[in-house]
Amino acid sequence: MIKKTVILLTIVALLTIFSLYGCGIANEANSNSDRNPSTTQSAGTTTTHTVEMTGDYEFAPSSLTIKQGDSVKWIVTGAKAHEVASGTVIEGEDGKEGVPDGLWKTDKMASGSFTYTFDSTGTFPYYCDAHLDQGMIGSITVE
Ligand SMILES: [Cu+2]
Hints:
This protein is of the alpha+beta class. It has two domains: 2-40; 48-142, Cupredoxins -  blue copper proteins (Immunoglobulin-like). The chain has helices spanning 2-34, 37-40, and strands at 48-53, 59-60, 63-66, 71-76, 85-92, 95-105, 113-117, 122-127, 137-142. The chain has a five-stranded mixed beta sheet with strand order 3-9-8-5-6, with no helix packed on it. β1 (48-53) and β2 form a beta hairpin. The chain is globular and about 45 Å long. It binds copper (II) ion. Copper (II) ion is lined by residues 57, 82, 128, 130-131, 136.
């Protein structure tokens, strides 16, 4: 009776050791693939980039290159209120004028942030309508 119990316990112990060993192998395989991003980089990996809207009427950085599917988060960091509108800026009769392209446009924000996800490639100019004369324009290039 005691012998049977000892044998059972031994089997349980061996099974436990083998299952732990199995996990160890699996973990090692995962960390190996992490070290080799060229072969394991998945299409599902996206990044959120940050652009500051400063108290000096600037988008910082004013130009940014990102990957398709990435997002850009504009954050008000200074004491000035700003907005972010996609589109181009032209020289009108009364100075600079923003021409929205309709992709995105925020209200004037005294604080907080706005995030937009870029699902297609291309170049996306944008501007702050309140501060065109200060040259508050930017551009996102999506590759
Ligand atoms: Cu502004």
